[in-house]
Specification:
The structure is a homodimer of 439-residue chains.
Chain A: E1 5-11, H1 15-26, H2 28-35, E2 38-45, E3 61-63, H3 66-72, E4 77-80, H4 86-97, E5 101-104, H5 107-123, E6 128-129, H6 140-147, E7 153-159, H7 162-174, H8 178-188, H9 196-199, H10 202-216, E8 226-227, H11 235-243, E9 246-257, E10 260-271, E11 283-290, E12 294-301, H12 305-324, E13 353-363, H13 368-378, E14 383-388, E15 397-404, E16 407-408, H14 409-420, E17 430-434
Parallel strand pairs in A: 1-2, 1-4, 2-3, 4-5, 5-6, 8-10, 10-17
Antiparallel strand pairs in A: 7-9, 7-11, 9-10, 11-12, 13-15, 13-16, 13-17, 14-15
Helix pairs in contact in A: 1-12, 4-5, 5-10, 7-8, 13-14
């Protein structure tokens, strides 16, 4: 059935690109049975033709210049898997100009240039699909755009960076420090040589930019996200959290409240009874809380060659179906009609309310707690519980672990500045937000 | 924009029907912003017009005969929410005959008559959507049909009946018997007056019929499913399971292996480390394990007025988009091209391999274990661990809890018949399968 043949070009033959080529080969028959569509890779592009790869590219027409490929080849869909922003953006815009649909796994590209790409897609009546850009194999983009589309979404919270989740899980499990586990993760290929993007939270912030746009109907706005990484999380905090009935996870959170939208990426304590607190290792999971469906959760592999390819190919099938049936019935790129994407007030982190876990190192003598609590009192911060460890009784300094009631962040910031100035307090105070994830 | 108006008729104004009417009213603006579509309810039908309801039906044209409504009204989509099989089937087939698309939440209808309905839909070039038929708000149908469609699915396992999950959760939590908790569940509205459909596993089997068809590409075949309910689960078993590191859950399992497909609904022990073991109360969750994506999990409300309506309305939006864009780009009703749905060998439960939890009440004297293990040995059943409780040391009978290695079910069935005949064994042996849910 020649009429059901779709011609695609793949740009980028790294982990994900190889996965797409392998998956289309391996499951060609199953894909045909499900969709009735034969997806044929007619051309590929990568920087270096002769690099050793995990996929067979013999018989596929090769271009070292992807823009040349777009110009010369008659393809229906281009699959952009090179990552990065600059060349990827040129490729996507040039493809759209040539009325070629786009599938991408590139979160940075969508987060930083998605508004422009969305306009170009609309002008050229083409689709840009990006399921693989957030949470790998987990179909969170389709779920929010197409399954929760009768809902008003209140908040979305996710573990959407496998590297940080692996490190936090492994620290607690093997009783090791952040830097030890990071080194191991790099050796295992779970963390990049330059881990800043992952452990510093930038990667999760790119993904939250996308999730918050399609959840709340706001244009993509990476710069408004508050970002903290996990570099300062110590094993002792993971242990205290556990003792208090919590797990520490690096979360991306978008929440709509009466005053505006909170957008933040940071570590937090989650009650161990929540499913999200039990998502371990490199896995990803996203909870969406909405008015009709209530809280729903989506879990799976957040990265990996075939896992990410699973989402890329599902996007290719969606677009192919529309091409074959000559249909314009596309879901809007960012989940809302373009005219209905509206800027909304994004709250500064200092306006956000949180409960807090605090670990303060103090001189081991009477009266210290009174000095500290006096400052909290002056900033209207009330303390829910105190965990004072006496195991270092002979030491000059002991840790006090405090859990606060809900407070405006500005107050806690101000209080901690004052407390850190006290003579009896040693070093920087560790502060980690607590998220109940109530529905 | 009149061209983006879709006219629907709703049949059945119970919990789900009221939810659909309320949700379309409440979130009309959000739905319009996302889809660009105005969904207008032009007519409704129910058995009794004047019954007290949780939704406002004033201004909506009412029919007591839904077939009359189909004949007289000019609607694009009919939403069938009366449940049951007989009238529901007439309504759906009559609607299709009249080229009216169908959205339904009716699992019994799809499970028992879906093959016929699928043909009628194809002949009339209409869609029949049924997202709400399995796992309420959880978009598991769309995920399997549209997001995992580049995968070969190995197995699917789910908690897809909220009533049984609520009862099992509550028994352990409040240390009560099955019958006590069942009565409470009925009082809370979580269980029907006649609970057989839920606690006996029929409802879950209807849903598994649907999940296995769209997962493995087989026609719907309710009769081939092996079904056990939770009526015989005792509090003591929940406690022993916990002690062994497991939770007891009522699971629906479809698994493809070398010899055929296993389709079964029964209680089982799941390692407490699995997310599925931590899904409590009335919630539902489904794990799908497939070759590319790996294991992915989908969790949320399995029932409820607005939660189920969330899925119903998402189906209405999907169909409306196709109507408005005059698109025939439908996903096949059962996830595979009609010609590619093929019967496959469904394994008899006796051919299935499982590990087993067994609780045997025996006379409290030496030599008993030897008699029992001799019989296991003769059927090639090896024992992984034994938990012998001495807390009833002065009693005449004591429980022995055994965990077996993986065995063919026929062997365990045969062995238990022989063991139950022993003089030292008192009453029926409790046997519950163990599912590791490895990926």
């Amino acid at each position: 059935m020649n009429k059901n043949k779709i011609k695609i070009g793949v740009v980028g033959l790294g982990t994900v690109g190889s996965g797409v080529i392998n998956l289309l080969e391996k499951n060609k028959e199953e894909i045909l049975k499900r969709s009735g569509i034969s997806i044929d890779i007619t051309c590929i592009s990568a920087a270096n033709k002769n690099k050793k790869r995990d996929c067979n590219i013999s018989g596929l027409k090769f271009y070292s210049d992807p823009l040349e490929m777009i110009k010369l080849e008659d393809i229906d869909v281009i699959v952009e898997l090179i990552g990065g922003e600059s060349l990827a953006k040129d490729i996507v815009l040039k493809a759209l100009e040539n009325k070629i649909h786009v599938v991408t796994a590139n979160k940075a590209l969508i987060a930083l240039h998605g508004n422009e790409i969305s306009k170009a897609a609309e002008n050229n009546k083409c689709d840009v699909a990006y399921e693989a850009s957030v949470a790998g194999a987990v179909p969170i983009i389709k779920v929010i755009r197409e399954s929760l589309n009768a809902n008003i979404i209140h908040w979305v919270a996710g573990i959407i960076n496998g590297t940080t989740n692996y490190i936090l899980t492994e620290m607690l499990k093997s009783k090791k420090s952040f830097s030890e586990v990071l080194k191991e993760a790099q050796a295992l290929g779970y963390a990049e040589a330059d881990p800043a993007f992952d452990v510093g939270g930038i990667d999760a912030a790119h993904k939250l930019t996308i999730l918050s746009s399609i959840s709340f109907g706001i244009p993509l706005n990476f710069n408004s996200i508050y970002v903290e990484g996990i570099e300062d999380i110590e094993l002792v905090d993971l242990n205290y959290a556990k003792e208090l009935g919590y797990a520490i996870k690096h979360l991306a959170i978008g929440r709509k409240n009466a005053d505006g939208i909170e957008l933040r990426v940071h570590p937090c304590l989650i009650p161990k009874s929540r499913l999200l607190a039990n998502v371990d290792g490199v896995k990803n999971a996203v909870v969406v809380s909405s008015d009709a469906a209530g809280p729903t959760l989506y879990y799976g592999a957040g990265a990996g060659s075939l896992a990410t390819a699973s989402s890329v190919v599902s996007d290719i099938i969606d677009i192919s179906r529309k091409i074959i049936f000559k249909s314009n019935a596309s879901v809007p790129l960012l989940g809302y009609q373009a005219d209905d994407l509206k800027e909304q007030n994004i709250l500064n982190i200092k306006e956000v309310e949180s409960r807090y876990y605090l670990r303060i190192r103090v001189t081991n003598r009477p009266g210290v707690l009174a000095e500290i609590t006096k400052i909290f009192g002056s900033k209207s911060i009330s303390i829910e519980s105190i965990l004072q460890k006496e195991d270092l009784i002979n030491d000059k300094f002991v840790p006090i672990v405090l859990v606060t009631h809900s407070v405006i962040e500005k107050n806690i910031f101000d209080a901690l500045i004052d407390i850190e100035k006290l003579d009896v307090v040693k070093g920087k105070i560790v502060k980690i937000r607590i998220e109940e994830l109530d529905s």
